[in-house]
Each structure stands twice: as C-alpha cells, then as structure tokens.
TrEMBL record:
Keywords noted in UniProt: Cell membrane, Membrane, Oxidoreductase, Transmembrane, Transmembrane helix
Name of the protein: Hydrogenase-4 component F
Membrane topology: Multi-pass membrane protein
Gene: hyfF
InterPro entries for the chain: ComplexI-like_HydComp (IPR052175), ND/Mrp_TM (IPR001750), Proton_antipo_N (IPR001516)
UniProt subcellular location: Cell membrane; Membrane
GO molecular function, one term: oxidoreductase activity
Segments passing through the bilayer: 61-82, 102-118, 124-143, 155-176, 203-224, 236-256, 276-294, 301-319, 325-346, 367-388, 408-429, 450-467
Pfam families on file: Proton_antipo_M, Proton_antipo_N
Domain NADH-Ubiquinone oxidoreductase (complex I) chain 5 N-terminal: 57-88
Record flagged with keyword Protein transport: no
Family: Belongs to the CPA3 antiporters (TC 2.A.63) subunit A family.
Residue ranges occupied by any NADH:quinone oxidoreductase/Mrp antiporter transmembrane domain in the UniProt entry: 121-416
Length: 499
C-alpha cells in the first residue's frame, strides 16, 4: 500500500546519514509510490470504485483524481529537493545533519495526504487533515528564524481553530446519522451517508455543513480565513511551499467536496452548499486583487495567487453545471502543476538572487535564459492565457455563469481576473526583462539540466491544446460523482471538446 510506503520512507530518512543515501531511499520510495498509486488509479477509472480491508480504505473517481495529483506533485518536489536542499546546506542556511528530518517530515506530510484521500469515513478524514497540520508546521518553521517560527505558530493556531469548527460540524453530522443507523463508526461512512441522505435531518445537516465549510475552508485558504497562508508559504522551503499550494489546499478542498456531494443529496438540495461555494469563491477571488497588486514579496505573491485559484475552483463547483464542474476539476489539476512549478522555479531564482523582494529581482531572462523562459511560461499559465490549459478550464467555468443565468457574477469574475492578470504582468515583466542591478549575485551559473523543471509547464501547455480522451473520461466520472447525474453526458462530452 502506498500509505505504508510513505510512512516507511519517512522512517528510512532518519537512518540516512549522507546525501547519497537520502537520494537512494527517496528514489526507491518514489518508484514504489508511483507504481502502487498508478495501479490503483487505473483500476478505479477502468473498473469502478475499489476497497480493501473490508472497506476501511476506499477509492472512487474523486479520490483517484486527488491521488494522482498528490503522487505526481510529490515526485516532482522531492526530486527538486535534492539540489535545492544541498544548495541550502552549501550556503550555510541548513546543517547537513538536519536534512534527514526535512525528508522525514515531507514523507509524513505525503502520508497524511494519502490517508485523507483513501478513507471513506468523514471522521477519519478529519484526522488526516489535522495530521497534515502537524506534519507541515515543523516544515514551515524549518529554517528556525524568527519570522519562520512566527509563521509556523500562526499556521498552527489558525488551522487548529479552523479544523475545530470542522470537527464540530462532523459531530453534528454524526448526531444526525446516528439517529437513523445507530451511533457507531459507520455513522460517518460517506458511502452510507449518501445512501441515507434523504432521511437526514435538514436542520442538523445545514448546521454541520456551515461549520465544516468554515473549518476546512480555513485550510483551503478561503477569505477571510486565509491569513496563515502567505506567511506559511513565504517562510517554508520552496519545495514545501510547492506541496502546500499544489496539494495540501486541494486535500482540504476534497474534504469540502465530500460534504458538498452529501448535502446535495439531502432535503437541502444542491442550492445550499452550492451558494456557500459561490460566496467563498467570489470573495476569495475579489479580495486577492489588492494583495496581488501591492505585493513586494514574490513567494507571498504566489501564495495570494493560490487563494485566488481556490476561489476559481470553488466558483466552478458552486455553479453546478456539468461544464463548470468539469472545468473546476480540470483547473484543480492544472493549478497544482502550475503552482508547484512556479514555487520551484521562484525558489531557484531566490537562491541565485539572494532575495525574495520583487523590486530587487531584475533581468532574470538575460542572466539565466532557461530559468527565465520557464518563469515566463509560468506567468502565462497562472494567469490563464491561451494556449495553456488554464485558459480552457477558466473558460469552461465562465461558461457556467451564463448557463446558470448569472451574468453579473460572470462579469465580476472576468473583471477580477483581468485586474489580477495586470498585476502579475506588472510584477513578472519587471523581474524577467528589467535591468539587472550591480549587486553581487549568489549564483551566476546555469546549466541545461534546469530544463527538466519545465516538465509541468509543458504538460499544462499540451493540455491547453488537446485533452486526451482517457483524461476527459476520468474527469467525466468525477463530474458524474459530484453531480450525481449520468444521462446528460452525451451532450456534455461534446461541449468539452469545444474548448
């Protein structure tokens, strides 16, 4: 099992005393993880939901989608961590003796996220989300500087308060389901809850849903529960920032999605939770305009961008049309690839420039053409420019506003995205094409080996031009699970091909 692989890999890191041993153990663990998880993903999308241990662990189309995102981004980030952390050791920022602990907590973080998408029990899912907080808090404060420790404490306090709300919501749901099926662990089994959804007390479900959305929304980074996110992303090592933004936020959104699917089947209908997602999505998207325009720290800029894109995904899910939900699921994949790549490349630039301040980063394209080229691709992808896949996913979501007769919301969303695009253009063009200063650069060399960092951007570009049919069918299965529909997919399949 891939969860066991992650936990065993974590403890293997602690007995590794050299960089060579760390690379070996990490590589072997990644091969096992990719093989086991890949086999499970193929089985789910090819044969339907899978379960083991009497249903204690279970995977359907939605959890298989998140499983794929987790293992792909984890592999990319760990491979990048080899050179990144060795550079930090050489620069004297991290002692060699602390590298095993870094990889230990990274693998524990991966293991908790794998747990989240593997358990069908909403109570155990909560345990997994709380586990991600504990695993990542020490990674956020890994550098042990004052600002890093403050960010770690802020992260723990805000996320723990938020997750407490989610626990309260889960307990309320347990009370509602226990009245029908008895008070046992099975009362929180998502598969049974969906089956008995029409019988659940709507008042209790509504209250529990509000608490769950607020609690898990704090982990997603929805406004106004987002203040931990820019601090944590900016202070953590760049590979950890890539995992936080590309994977952790999606895992918290996955928890909200489980609740959303359940609430849609109750007497509350699809509108209640859908409107909550629309409100959180629109506020998160709109509030990020000012933060992005005025930001001076490049990693904080990317963190605020993550809040924006979580808002975009929430809008697509809240609209509830097949095309909008398809676009939201597609955007989840594309944002994970794009943001992980941006944090990795920006981390490299910060190491070479010795600063995170945007006004001090100038002339990247002339100093390091390969790195600058990848960064420019990241700019186009993260702002949803054609022909990148993010353009296709955002257009699919925008179409949902007009299909659902929300032209004003569609106009506001387009306006917010246009302003954010202008902000990113202003910041990135200066960094890429500005005149390099005379200050001493920490690293003036660049080899062609940096080109492998562009792999996620190439994938995002290819997915903007062509969506492979297996991926399209997999996304259709996820949409069908979220909406609980099946009869409209002949027309839906044609619609997705228009974009």
């Amino acid at each position: 099992m891939f969860i066991v692989v992650a936990i065993l890999a974590a403890f293997c890191m602690l007995i590794s005393t050299s960089s060579r041993a760390l690379r070996l153990f990490n590589s072997l663990a990644l091969i096992a993880l990719l093989g086991l998880a890949g086999e499970m993903i193929l089985r789910v999308f090819g044969q339907g939901p899978q379960s083991i241990w009497g249903g204690f662990f279970s995977w359907d189309a939605l959890s298989a989608l998140l499983l794929g995102v987790i293992v792909v981004i984890a592999a990319y980030v760990i491979v990048y961590s080899f050179s990144y952390m060795e550079h930090e050791v050489a620069a004297g920022k991290v002692p060699q003796s602390r590298l095993p602990r870094y990889y230990f907590w990274v693998w524990m973080f991966i293991g908790t996220m794998l747990w989240v998408v593997s358990t069908p029990n909403l109570g155990l899912l909560w345990v997994g989300i709380e586990g991600t907080t504990l695993a990542t808090a020490l990674l956020v404060g890994f550098y042990r500087q004052k600002t890093a420790v403050e960010a770690a404490w802020k992260y723990i306090v805000l996320c723990t308060v938020g997750i407490s709300f989610a626990l309260l919501g889960t307990m309320i749901l347990y009370a509602a389901s226990g009245r029908i099926n008895g008070y046992s662990l099975a009362a929180l089994d998502w598969r049974l809850l969906v089956g008995m959804a029409p019988q659940l007390d709507p008042a209790l479900v509504k209250l529990g849903c509000i608490f769950a959305f607020i609690g898990y929304g704090a982990k997603v980074g929805f406004v106004p529960m987002h203040p931990w996110l820019p601090d944590a992303h900016s202070q953590a090592p760049s590979p950890v920032s890539a995992l936080l933004s590309g994977v952790l936020l999606n895992c918290a959104l996955y928890a909200i999605l489980r609740w959303h699917i359940l609430v849609r089947q109750t007497g509350l209908g699809p509108d209640f939770s859908g409107k909550l997602l629309l409100v959180f999505g629109l506020i998160s998207l709109g509030a990020m305009m000012a933060f992005i325009l005025l930001q001076k720290d490049i990693k904080r800029l990317l963190a605020y961008s993550s809040v924006e894109h979580m808002g975009i995904i929430a809008l697509g899910l809240g609209l509830g049309t097949p095309l909008a939900v398809w676009g939201a699921c597609f955007h989840l994949i594309l944002h994970a690839l794009t943001k992980a790549n941006l944090f990795v490349v920006v981390g490299r630039v910060v190491q070479m420039m010795g600063t995170r301040q945007i006004p001090k980063i100038r002339g990247v394209m002339s100093l390091w053409p390969y790195t600058g080229g990848i960064l420019f691709m990241g700019l186009l992808a993260i702002t949803g420019m054609p022909p990148f896949g993010t353009f296709r996913s955002e257009i699919s979501i925008m179409a949902g506003f007009f299909q659902n007769h929300h032209p004003i919301l569609g106009f506001l969303t387009a306006l917010f995205l246009a302003v954010i695009f202008a902000g990113f253009l202003y910041h990135f063009l200066g960094m890429l094409f500005g005149t390099p200063g005379e200050r001493c650069l920490k690293d003036k060399g660049e080899g062609k080996e940096v080109l492998w960092l562009a792999v996620p951007m190439i994938l995002v570009l290819m997915l903007g031009v062509f969506v492979p049919e297996p991926l399209n069918q997999a996304l259709n299965q996820v949409v069908e699970l979220i909406l609980g529909r099946g009869g409209e997919y002949g027309e839906f399949g044609k619609l997705t091909q228009l974009f």
